[in-house]
């Protein structure tokens, strides 16, 4: 069944991608990710003028012989990243959105495991969180199997449940959610996450199918979190007002994320997960 959920071709493609950390990894072990700072790996980065305190062993004497100026060679420091994935398991994430979120986490997790990074995964919002920690490509099938066997989301509150959890320190923490809970409810969660991670990145799962009918008619709305239904006679003015409310909701959430230094990308369910990661996330500087 794992091959159906996440084909081998997707695993191979994901294994070639790497997470990028702007703040530098928190891990102390050598890995396969470039931290963005100079260090002692054999991969050359560039030259910089010598300054008192620099390691004289890194002086390029050939340049000195030609220019009579001291330059040192800089190398890229490769360190282990600690990658954390938090998946919204509240009821609004059901159906195709849930499958998309799981497959997106599969890509992100495979990237970390292939780079020998430390991976922690948590699906939270249901009766109890589903947690997995792993490191190394040997845990690939274990991780994919865990995702495949996750129960359908039935929780009623992602932000409150996630904010009550204790998170290990991370270099990069991804939050995969539809963002449909009140923006203010994300504040305690974002505040907590920023304290325990070098970078926090939110991936908002959006659907191109409108939540609100585009023509006037009698409809029944069902709250995806509580299951409560209400019958409404839609008018053009009411449709327009509801669209404004939806736009304002995500605008407030984006503003809150900026306040806490949380980067945000929208993933449309109509685009393939690998395409989203390899194109949009790469363009944003999240992966290479």
TrEMBL record:
Biased composition (Basic residues): 22-32
Domain DUF58 stretches: 48-235
Start and end residues of each stretch annotated as Disordered: 22-44
Domain of life, per lineage: Bacteria
Pfam families: DUF58
Bias (Polar residues) ranges: 33-43
This protein's name: DUF58 domain-containing protein
Organism per entry: Bhargavaea ginsengi
């Amino acid at each position: 069944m794992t091959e159906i959920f996440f084909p081998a071709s997707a695993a191979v493609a994901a294994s070639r991608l790497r997470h990028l950390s702007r703040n530098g990894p928190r891990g102390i072990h050598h890995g396969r990710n470039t931290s963005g700072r100079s260090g002692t790996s054999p991969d050359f980065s560039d030259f910089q003028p010598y300054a008192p305190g620099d390691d004289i062993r890194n002086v390029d004497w050939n340049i000195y012989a030609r220019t009579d100026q001291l330059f040192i060679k800089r190398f890229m420091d490769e360190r282990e990243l600690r990658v954390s994935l938090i998946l919204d398991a509240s009821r609004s994430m059901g159906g195709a959105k849930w499958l998309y979120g799981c497959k997106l986490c599969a890509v992100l997790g495979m990237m970390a495991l292939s780079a020998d990074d430390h991976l922690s995964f948590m699906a939270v919002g249901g009766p109890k969180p589903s947690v997995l920690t792993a490191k190394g490509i040997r845990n690939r099938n274990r991780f994919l199997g865990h995702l495949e066997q996750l129960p359908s989301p039935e929780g009623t509150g992602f932000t409150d449940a996630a904010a009550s959890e204790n998170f290990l320190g991370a270099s990069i923490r991804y939050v995969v959610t539809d963002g449909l809970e009140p923006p203010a409810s994300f504040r305690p969660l974002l505040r907590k996450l920023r304290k325990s991670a070098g970078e926090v990145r939110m991936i908002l799962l959006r659907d191109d199918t409108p939540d609100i009918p585009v023509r006037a008619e009698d409809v029944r709305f069902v709250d995806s979190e509580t299951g409560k239904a209400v019958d409404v006679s839609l008018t053009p003015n009411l449709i327009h007002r509801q669209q404004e409310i939806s736009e304002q909701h995500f605008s407030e959430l984006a503003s809150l994320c900026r306040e806490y230094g949380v980067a945000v990308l929208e993933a449309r369910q109509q685009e393939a997960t690998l395409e989203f990661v390899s194109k949009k996330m790469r363009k944003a500087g999240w992966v290479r």
